């Protein structure tokens, strides 16, 4: 595999001039502006028999501007400047490319050209440089040592029943992300997609920022503003499949089903109804690699979360397959070696060109490329949210198997950087419930006021919501992720407008206004999430080694562990409190409370004395030379230092 990677990399270096800017000719449609304002338009359509350009500039005449066929499936059209020396196609012109072939009479592909984006660098090459829209005022922030990710979707980022905008997100949501202590935002559904309800995973244009949220400048302003706040910005990158649309997508671009994709049934995802890329194709690899550079260069993203990597890695695409941990499930003839090599190339090039770039995938592919891995920086621990949902759905509180929960949270190799989360957008989608809704369900509609006493359901839900998130944050990985709104226990589910719900936007929004109402308990959950992140920012447990669990008492339902010079104590017992509870520590000295879930401001009961000091004694306990007694009238959940 490494040999195949090295061979493909050498070919790229030779063709591209040691990682110079990748040619735009393999975007399927590229435009160059020459020094005389003449425009050279190129496309790659090997199956086409004729190619024409139509649009505003020629009153939509279909065949007045034919392309000339070149070698290797390329087509070219030169448009001389106007009499006044201005380009024949002006900024924001609407265009369509018409391809004809023996397989398809006519294939239209829609474009809106931003002519001022590019200038021809060398008349005899295919290299480009940027001209305008380079309004970034702030440098990329340093790569965080502790990654705290806020997963977000621009369109649903408003309490109003509408599609929110990049400007709205910049103005209203970025300050909340900063206040909450997250140092990274992961943006979903940015790449253009025709079907809003696809959550951005049915991409139609890989080089276009979704226009339903605003202009490219608005997105750049969002990224630049995030950088000014010290927030890293990741993009959800969908290179695993593409929309099957033909009018506005890559499907049948040149009249064949195999231009960018595998031909026949191999090129179709049987569950998603989308097209599957042919990673063995030289042109497809260049198309995808140039796409990565485009988002890094043009929009200043700081890295990518690669979506659906499992679908890329295996010929079965994960359909009807479960991974139990047996190595035979991960290796064998069912592995798509071409997809593996592409991911190796992507990670190698990104980290060579942008050493601070962050790449994330959902599978264990963290090893360096030299060691035979794919070179990703982090993996997502998808088993953790599944475990929490399973526990809440199927197990009574008194029957929780803490050993199994801890095993799920710590099941990773040392040195394997993982991003852990209690829930993401997957758990919020219609058909499932967020953790808060599993815990409190319909009572969230009527009993979330702090002006009245908590019902047993709300009390249990609020306390467990905090404990689950802190245990996941502190024990589960080297990074932490939260989906927007879940930090304050967003009620209900997430559902995009579609025929099945009468095109309603009621559930396609995030009700941040609930946090701004002082007497609602959503504000208390928000405060705990904020202080949890700020405590991590101060003590850096995510950047520390894995935790050392010293107490895992199934009968008492108590978990105690040390990480980054902090001692974490959790009591998950539904009814028992403890006094004189001995805990083991590595370091002798005085310990103080740094984060306490029972504080009133977090929706707790205020039963702990916050300024209590604890002194160790040289009494060996649970494998540690030091220990001390935690003496409370009620012990719930604390972090000590």
From TrEMBL:
Keywords, sorted A to Z: Glycosyltransferase, Transferase
Gene3D superfamilies hit by this protein: Glycosidases, Golgi alpha-mannosidase II, Immunoglobulins
GO terms of biological process kind: glycogen biosynthetic process; nervous system development
CDD domains membership: AmyAc_bac_euk_BE
Keyword Chloroplast on entry: no
Ranges annotated as spanning the membrane: none
Family: Belongs to the glycosyl hydrolase 13 family. GlgB subfamily.
Name of this protein: 1,4-alpha-glucan branching enzyme
Species, as recorded: Cyprinus carpio (Common carp)
Phylogenetic lineage: Eukaryota, Metazoa, Chordata, Craniata, Vertebrata
